[in-house]
Amino acid sequence: MHYTIIDVETSGRTNRITEISVFKYDGNKVIDEFTSLVNPNCYIPEHITALTGIDNGTVANAPEFHEIAQQVLEITKDTIFVAHNVNFDYNVIRNEFKSINIDFTRKKLCTVRLSRKLLPGHKSYSLGKLSKDLNININGRHRAHGDAEATVTLFKKLQAQDNAENVFSNFLNKNSKEATLPPNLPKEVFNALPNATGIYYFKNKKNEIIYVGKAKNIKKRVLSHFYSKAQKSLNMVRETRNIDFELSGSELIALLMEDAAIKQHFPQYNKVAKRAPKGFSLFSYQDRNNIMHIAINNSKATPNPIITFYSLREARLFLERICEQFNLCPKFCHLQEGVSECSHFSIKNCKGICKGNEDVNIYNERVTNAICEIVNDSQDKILKEKGRNDNEEAFVIIKNGTYLGYGFIDKNEQITHEDELENYLIKQKDNSDVQGILRSVLLK
Predict the structure, then answer these.
(1) Is there a smaller number of Cβ atoms within 10 Å at the N or the C end of the chain?
(2) In 2-78, which ranges are continuous DSSP H helix?
(3) How confident is the model over 293-307, as pLDDT tens digits?
(4) How far apart are CA 187 and CA 248, in angstroms?
């Protein structure tokens, strides 16, 4: 069995290769080596230069990746790709090949994960600190050749450990997730994740929450982060040391839990809205002919809104539904502008107010009824949801148009009045994002 033990230096955020070093190892000794600077054709930031010593001048006359691609392919052919935090180096190289329309696929081994398994008890498993603990000399830290050479020495030490053969075999098993999991995440943590609906928390070495997500299947969704080639995901999983989760039972409650967790913890890798989303409100007025209109406007310019949405599309869809349900006129609901008579493509049940064929008072009565139903319907709601297990039900309470929170209750509990549900309520804060989540559910 042959291995290629590899390290790359990159340009930082753009993750283009600036240097690559490959040691081909037959299990006993190094039998081949390839090292080269690489011109990334992009700017190398000062903080990267400070770390590696590689600047734009250093790589100005170096070959571009496509010029060395064949050598990398040949030296790694029929070998197992080994690196310290293998997913980083592997994905960087794979993306370089992808940019020149070559599919690069190799089996992988991670010396961080192997070290955690075969050399337990170290405070840190970074290459620098682990090498210091194991008396491995690094001749050129943060340069591809020096780091790859140190990883070769580390790999030999790993091979010499008790049970190394079984551990290597297990890691290479196609059903094992070892090559996919983040380097510092124990496999037991991933295995404990459920195939159920809820939210999950990625945590760093300080046990700080760095990402919150929601999923119908937590384990499957978490695994998808590990396969992602997006730079954000690569950075995030590299920092991940632990993953916690909370079951929700339903996707709606998962959405609500996710929103609350993001606003509480402000995780580094979650996009948190910097400003409140723009609102769109329904309002009514009477024109000079005393005909009542319902229209949509920017919420800031609507002093007495009937109902507010945080998407213009949702507001319009809702108004179309009300127009059709109460036989209102698309023209006077402002679903059609600049027409003398309505001719909506899907709403055909106008009774003729726009043609003067209907009494204004009769039409206005239907508009008033529509407004009353909208207001009443949006004020008090109890949404019944699936519980976290077969013996449980979940619920969401909206009172006076305000979201109060969610809760879980045993199916055997005797509830004689809906107010009793508040005894089981997990109180939450209302906000525009939550209103948008609930509105989309209520529309359905």
Answers:
(1) C
(2) 46-52, 65-76
(3) 999 999 889 888 888
(4) 24
Nearest to 64 by CA among 101, 44, 39, 96: 39
Residue 414 DSSP code: -
Q: Which residue pairs from 367-375 have beta carbons closer than 8 angstroms and sit at least 24 positions apart in sequence?
A: 367/284, 367/292, 367/294, 367/326, 367/328, 368/292, 369/326, 370/294, 370/322, 370/325, 370/326, 370/328, 371/284, 371/294, 371/306, 374/282, 374/306, 374/307, 374/322, 375/306, 375/307
**What is the tens place of the pLDDT at every residue in 338-383?**
999 999 999 999 999 999 999 999 999 999 999 998 887 767 788 9
Say if residues 90 and 179 touch (Cβ distance below 8 Å): no
Amino acid code (one letter) for 175: N
For residue 401, is it left (φ>0), alpha (ψ between -120 and 50) or beta?
A: left
Range 300-307, long-range pairs (CB < 8 A, 24+ positions): 305/281, 306/281, 306/282, 306/371, 306/374, 306/375, 307/281, 307/282, 307/374, 307/375, 307/378
